[in-house]
Amino acid sequence: MLLVLCVDLDDDLGRKTGFSTPVIGREPVEEAAVALATEDPEDSDVNVIFQGIHVYDDLAERDESVEVAVVTGNDGSDLEANREVGDEVDTVLASLSTAETVTTLVITDGAQDESVIPIIRSRVPIDGVRRVVVRQAQNLESMYYTIKQVLDDPETRGTVLIPIGILLLIYPLALIGALLDLPGLVLGVTSTLLGLYLISRGLGLGEYLDATVEYGRRSLYAGRTTLLAYVVATALLALGGVSGVDTLEETRASTPIDLGIPMMLAALVYGSIQWIAAAGITTSLGQITDEYIAGRLEWRYLNAPFYVIAISVVLYAVSGFFLDEFGVAMLATALTGGTLLGIVSTLAFAVAESRFSEGSHRADSA
């Protein structure tokens, strides 16, 4: 007897239709194929099962002893799937009531399903393996559909589109040194835009951008002060960067020798730390306001502005000391004051949270 064995390694049949496997017999197999085709017409396992039915009918017309069955694995690891297929093959063989020697014809839709062939061969001799390849019309529509599927598949776009995008970016980078070549510049800009598009599609940046826009829209209509605080903080950081660069230029102009890296960093920090501190205080106050409105405010959240002030005082004093703006006494005072401010705020809000929490618990128990 020849057993026509249709292999569905990732169990699309069971997961999508609810059929219990293995499926044995011509009529049950046809019902399973129709159910899977109805649920997912694009599934390649549909063609595998129908091919098994076709082979069964062809051999049955020749009065040969033949049976058809569908065995499945699972969508887990390959090892687990192969073991499950082996168990189902044992079930199929045990159900065959024949005294003839049983051999099998394995039908699959690709190399992945064919990895189970050694498992099947250990249980029953294999007469042959047939891979089902669906013939498609080679026209523009099928090409468009294929490209669309590639762009929508996260795994494919990550492995295919990103390298293509990077390759397209190589040429415009080579044109940076030849900006006077206008035709080349146009070609470079076009290639750059195309490369950026492919990279954004490959990384799925459009989805993140849409999510960010949606979050901003909801925050705007919900009256969240965090959104306004972030906008103001961004402007303050930009002003801080400009102020830091101006301070660095002034320090260079007033110093006859070349500045080292520590002095350059000190000048940047000294000129920008006030603006950065203002940005930090703005964002922390906005977050605190939103937490209070939402009823989630905890006392320890109030530490954030004081921490920002304490850190800013320390950095301002240290950078000023490097620039000879402050002496040792001023530096020591600032370090001590910043440390005490952080410790006092932490202890104060911790005590307040503890006492108010105990009071609320007592009121609830009463």
From TrEMBL:
Superkingdom of origin: Archaea
Q: Does the keyword Metal-binding apply?
A: no
Could you tell me which InterPro entries the record lists for this protein? DUF373
Kindly list the residue ranges recorded as spanning the membrane: 158-179, 185-206, 227-245, 265-285, 306-323, 329-352
Pfam families found in the cross-reference section: DUF373
Q: Which UniProt keywords apply?
A: Membrane, Transmembrane, Transmembrane helix
PANTHER family cross-referenced by the UniProt entry: DUF373 FAMILY PROTEIN (PTHR38815:SF1), HYPOTHETICAL MEMBRANE PROTEIN, CONSERVED, DUF373 FAMILY (PTHR38815)
Q: What is this protein called?
A: DUF373 family protein
Protein source organism:
Halostagnicola larsenii XH-48
